[in-house]
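2024-03-11 09:14:02 INFO queue: dequeued item Zinc ribbon domain-containing protein YjdM, len=115
2024-03-11 09:14:02 INFO validating residues
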Amino acid sequence: MSTLPPCPQCSSSLTYEDGSLYICPECGHEWSALAAQQTESADRPKVIRDAVGNELRDGDAVTVIKDLKVKGSSLVVKMGTKVKNIRLVEGDHDIDCKIDGIGAMQLKSEFVKKA
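2024-03-11 09:14:37 INFO prediction written
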């Protein structure tokens, strides 16, 4: 059984390796092994973990583990604040949520633990 990736252009499983390239004999498409590895790693979903290492999912409740200053205001999210029904997003701040008394915010997963 072949462990070579199928052709990204025509999905043929008859690909072969020639040096550092993969080649499809059916459509003649050539691509690098590095491009194939990047495509495989992009297909895997990103796992977001809290400060302790627990996997987070949409809808989880988390607790803030340190005081966080809110940019552009004098408000502070106090340590121990429980945040319900989080939503995971892509980007630098990977949690979207609403905090009572403050409103909609984005948090980094490194500053929360799963409740």
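2024-03-11 09:14:37 INFO annotate: Residues 33-43 form the longest helix (11 residues).
2024-03-11 09:14:38 INFO item closed
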